[in-house]
Amino acid sequence: MNGHAVETASHLIQNGVNAAKTLVHEPEMHDLDVSKLTVSLTKSPGKVPEPDSLEIWDMKTCTDHMVKVTWTDDVGWHAPTIEPYGQLTMSPIASCLHYATQCFEGLKVYRGFDGKLRLFRPDKNCARLVMSSARVALPTFNPKELEKLLKAFMKVDGPKWLPKSRPGRFLYLRPAIIGNGEQIGVTAPSEVLMFIVAVGWPDLSSGTRPGTLPKPPGLKLLASKSDVRAWPGGFGYAKVGANYGPAFVSHMEGRKMGYDQILWLLGADYQVTEAGASNFFIVWKTKEGNLQLVTAPLDAKVILEGVTRGSVLELARQRLVSGSEYLPPNITDLEVVERNFTMLEIEEAWEEGRIVEAFLSGTAYFITPVSAISFRDEEIDIPMGDGTSGYYAALLKKWLKDIMYGNVQHEWGVVIDEE
To answer: What's any one GO cellular component for it (predicted)?
Structure first.
């Protein structure tokens, strides 16, 4: 067959394929599209809890509305809705109930001291939800549309639940995606639900639950023994429910022993990964006398790429350097290091008096100092600077709060138009 004949045959075959597609009416899969959003307001509005009340500390009080978006394998993403907050219904054979086809995000919306509502780096959370969704065979979407959806949601509920008369407050936002189609077979779900709720949330980094005795400052961590949270080649880097439920056993056992969180270790050398659902940082002096801020790396995909973690690292690299205008006179510049490190190194640094401080970072706990780590039945006391926090943790926390609450104008603080 000559070249012209081959070209003609290929053309005829392609025409046949196109004709077949036309005959079966192959559907166009729709992406998430906030321009199609509809809003249905509640007729039974709830009461906004008082700041730091028991209702806030119970973390069960949601705002008046919620976001819902359905995805089906024949249409793609349907039109999103903002509707009255209410219960979900699903089949007993829904995919998420049997195969953990579920993922979620956590971020906050803040009422600034300048009166404005802000999200903190929402693009990071939206992009991470896309990644987590793909990891558990759920559909992806345009992350910019999810950010628009979050803003639209808070334009409805933000003014009431975070009034301008109460600056310095926040709500916790929980976007989630679940495979809710009837799918008892081992396969990707044919129907999916994305929803977003907003919850009253306490300041876990420094507050105390009403009716309880004040706790000493700082968190006490219990180093894990036989359990591991995640492993190389697994899914520890994705924000999926399967990372959390199995960890509750160790967490609750640690609580009974008087510890706040589990410091998750990995391998025979006790490699430090995360603490609870937060990223772990330590400030120490090396044997050569260099001051370092150290945290675990992302390259093995064992730990979650925390938004607060990334922000801490960026600010530290920009501001905790010699000659920085942000560096107070009593604070020494340091080196920022992402590397694998072990509890054996922490233990040795403690014995040699080289530990300066340690803290956790995350959306729920924000920046919270660590006061002690129990490892191999020995309690390692962590210095606390002024007695309430390490100096570096306090400084980083202040810088982040200034951005979140509009004390300084920064690109990370994304303003929500309430007009």
So the answer is: mitochondrion
Please report the beta strands in 80-126, taking only residues with DSSP state E, as ranges in sequence order.
Answer: 81-84, 102-104, 107-111, 117-120
Q: Identify whether the C-beta of residue 171 lies closer than 8 Å to the C-beta of residue 63.
A: yes
Residue 142 sits in the same domain as residue 113: yes
Chain segment 350-398, per-residue pLDDT in tens: 999 999 999 999 999 999 999 999 999 999 999 999 999 999 999 999 9
**Which amino acid is located at 166 in the chain?**
R
Spatial distance between the Cα atoms of 311 and 125, rounded to a whole number of angstroms? 13
**For residues 284-295, average pLDDT:** 97
How many degrees, rounded to 5, is the angle at CA 247 between CA 66 and CA 197? Answer: 5
Q: What does the radius of gyration of the chain's CA atoms come to, in whole angstroms?
A: 25
Domain boundary among 200, 228, 263: 200
Fill in the amino acid letter for 37. L
pLDDT in tens, 162-213: 999 999 999 999 999 999 999 888 999 999 999 999 999 999 987 788 888 8
Q: Which among 305, 376, 370, 386 is positioned nearest to 338, based on CA atoms?
A: 305
How far is CA 250 from its chain centroid? 21
Q: Does residue 213 fall inside a structural domain?
A: no
d(CA 371, CA 352): 17
Q: How far apart are CA 390 and CA 382, in angstroms?
A: 9
CB atoms within 10 A of CB 327: 15
**Tokens 């803040």 found at:** 110
Range of the structural domain that residue 362 is part of: 219-413
As for how many domains the chain has, the answer is 2
CA atoms of 414 and 310, how far apart (whole Å): 17
Q: How far apart are CA 133 and CA 129, in angstroms?
A: 6
Residue 415 sits at φ, ψ, to 5 deg, of: -75, 140
Give the DSSP H or E segment for 12.
Answer: helix 3-24
Q: Which two tokens stand for residue 330?
A: 């009593």
Q: Based on the domain organization, do 169 and 43 belong to the same domain?
A: yes
The DSSP letter of residue 86 is -
Q: What is the CATH number of the domain that holds 271?
A: 3.20.10.10
Reading the block at residue 227, the tokens are 């359990």
pTM for the whole thing? 0.91
Dist. CA 409–CA 111, nearest whole Å: 14
